[in-house]
């Protein structure tokens, strides 16, 4: 069902401009390359619009936000909208401080995002200012389960209608929705939460996928979520053989992304639509 | 002797706010996770106090210091003191420039640190402005040996009394002391000096350990030093089997931290108190 | 032919001051260590001259450039010139934005570089403002091949004469030239382009090599290019045995650098001079 998505990435090698945090930026660059794209990180207000203008997608990630990069995100986002470029938003820790909250709302107001990707707490916070976020992880009470799955899907569809963005909510079960259709994705592995940056890496890969598939934002986003989760599973399988820890796992995750192809995604993807 | 320290970390999952350098920040985040904590890196003056307020510990690391983050460190440190949060100080390259020297002294003056962790040159510099630092490594003439061990321990105890902080001096032999008691730790491996960031990672792990054990700062700090050194030994053992180099070693170090438990620390810890 | 170059690095442990991008900075620090040097990253205008003054070499890398670090690069570069320190310039994405272009030309004007290292698009851009750069990779039409090798070597020699810098042009075939002599280096592996930072790492290693061999800038630069390429080959050989992906490859590359010695370089180096 995701036919052509990965092939388009590997053939087109989309240039992905990411304004992202310095904690996981190297992993983001390496996983964009592994996914088939080409990363460029530039965050100075004097050049972000130039860089966005030559790119195929823009990723805005609020981790380690500062006053300087906040302005750069706004400028790059507007430029991307002007150029008709897909823009992915990762509102890392959106509710963790007044500063992030303010920028998150301002970005939502001034930029038309193609995809908004976050954990349930971050997305709820964006949608209504009512989520709680403890640091950068989702709160226990917010989590998506089999029981509340349909309800969260409806919420995601609703938020998608309001924003005009595909909404990707990550967790044990991931949800990716536009106003009409929701994918529930059951790929992934708990080990992914024991290393830093899997969320940022997913946003980066999503940038790569939508950059090469600008006409299929929902499908490309769902493929990215599915693919990242599948890589997490495959990496864990290999990790078990190697008796490795979290350091090794981080490396294997990027390994798997560098090998991922359409057939693997077709066979290993676990999702349903409704 | 370190009973409960690691268990408390794994049970409480302390949120560790780190304002740290961009060279080793990813390793710091990953090793905080590996140790059982949850990392959050935020350095903008507009949000550091919000982030500190929801955290269990604060780590201030002076590597790649700049004017902007210097102010953020001061603000976050004061907030942590106000909230009664443990604060770990890693005065990376304290004597390498007038700028770092000035901030180091200002931080010492204005923030009450729970733990000050550095190599002997950095700590001597803080204590008396008399150490020499060539870059970020300790100077040969300063090194802690079996011969000067007791003398350095007395110096550490004295400096601890003056500052009210636990003093952790890293080297071939590590010393961790408060005003009354010193641990001499003989864990560790020379290979740890061949990769960047082992010092920063130790400060990060210390943040995680004291964050979950705020009533046992000395013991938690000594456990962190011991544990980090033990991981360095175990990683080297595995490295030899794999015939790997320094790239592999860095990964294995985080692997070992992700596996470390109380029993391993009890069996592998090499320390004496005096 | 590169006798003593690596030995001098391992014996002298040159302190390498790098003002470089936050995407690949950790890899740069680790590969400087692996090569036998000691890295120090400092980019604040208040301390860069202090840090440069105690260093053996300075590396300026324009990736993730900003207004603040641009000024620091200029100040550090001038200080290095004043102290007679070798300075390596890596004009990452020089033509990608007006901002980078302006700084690149200003640096060329105000700093005397020992080595300028870039892909053919970046170097052409510096030389004449006529190269095209799409992001941070070389453009297809610019690439160095067996057919245009002599022509590019003449261009490099000419540019070296104008700038007084050794010119290192990286690609499938690398060229390293001063005004009189050019090395064509055929080491390296295509896999190196599938991870981020191999170019930055080469600049970092070059800093380490010229820092310990300030009287042999051309030879040290060629040895660095040769050595880095050889590590890329050896890492690929090991990768094939491990059935790894790009994550593993990045680690193995640093592993190989940590093992590289004169004999390996003598036996594995593939280059000719003309």
What does this structure look like?
3 copies of one chain form a homotrimer. The model of chain A has no long low-confidence stretch (mean pLDDT 95). Chain A has one domain: UDP-N-acetylmuramoyl-L-alanine:D-glutamate ligase. The two termini of chain A are 14 Å apart. Chain A has 274 residues and is of the alpha/beta class. The first copy, chain A, contains 11 helices and 9 strands. In chain A, helix 2 (25-35) packs parallel to helix 10 (246-259) and helix 8 crosses helix 9 (217-242). The interface between A and B is medium-sized, with 32 and 32 residues.
Please write out the topology.
3 copies of one chain form a homotrimer.
Chain A (H helix, E strand, L loop, with lengths): L4 H8 L2 E5 L5 H11 L2 E4 L6 H6 L3 E5 L5 H17 L3 E4 L7 H13 L4 E5 H9 L20 H15 L2 E5 L3 E4 L4 E4 L12 H15 L4 H26 L3 H14 L2 H7 L2 E3 L1
Core attributes:
11 helices; alpha/beta; magnesium (chains A, B, C); homotrimer; hydroxyethylthiazole kinase activity (chains A, B, C); 274 residues; UDP-N-acetylmuramoyl-L-alanine:D-glutamate ligase; 9-stranded mixed beta sheet
CATH architecture of chain A: 3-Layer(aba) Sandwich
Task: Report the principal-axis shape of chain A.
Answer: globular
Total DSSP helices of chain A: 11
Number of domains of chain A: 1
CATH topology of chain A: UDP-N-acetylmuramoyl-L-alanine:D-glutamate ligase
């Amino acid at each position: 069902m995701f036919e052509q998505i990965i092939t388009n990435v590997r053939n087109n090698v989309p240039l992905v401009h990411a304004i992202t945090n310095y904690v996981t930026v190297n992993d983001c660059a390496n996983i964009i390359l592994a996914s088939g794209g080409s990363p460029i990180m530039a965050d100075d207000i004097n050049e972000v619009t130039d860089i966005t203008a030559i790119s195929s997608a823009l990723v805005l990630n609020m981790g380690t936000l500062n006053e300087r990069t906040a302005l750069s995100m706004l400028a790059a986002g507007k430029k991307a909208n002007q150029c008709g470029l897909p823009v992915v938003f990762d509102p890392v820790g959106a509710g963790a401080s007044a500063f992030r909250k303010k920028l998150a709302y301002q970005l939502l107001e001034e930029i038309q995002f193609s995809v908004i990707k976050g954990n349930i707490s971050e997305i709820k916070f964006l949608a209504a200012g009512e989520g709680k976020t403890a640091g950068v992880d989702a709160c226990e009470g917010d989590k998506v389960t089999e029981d509340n799955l349909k309800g969260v899907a409806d919420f995601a569809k609703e938020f998608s209608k309001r924003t005009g963005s595909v909404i990707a909510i990550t967790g044990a079960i991931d949800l990716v929705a536009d106003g009409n259709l929701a994918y529930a994705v059951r790929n992934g592995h708990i080990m992914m939460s024991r290393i830093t940056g899997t969320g940022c890496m997913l946003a980066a890969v999503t940038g790569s996928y939508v950059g090469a598939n600008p006409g299929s934002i929902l499908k490309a986003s769902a493929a990215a979520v599915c693919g990242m989760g599948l890589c997490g599973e495959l990496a864990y399988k290999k990790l078990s053989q190697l008796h490795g820890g979290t350091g090794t796992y981080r490396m294997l995750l990027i390994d798997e992304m560098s090998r991922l192809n359409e057939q693997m995604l077709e066979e290993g993807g676990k999702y349903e639509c409704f």
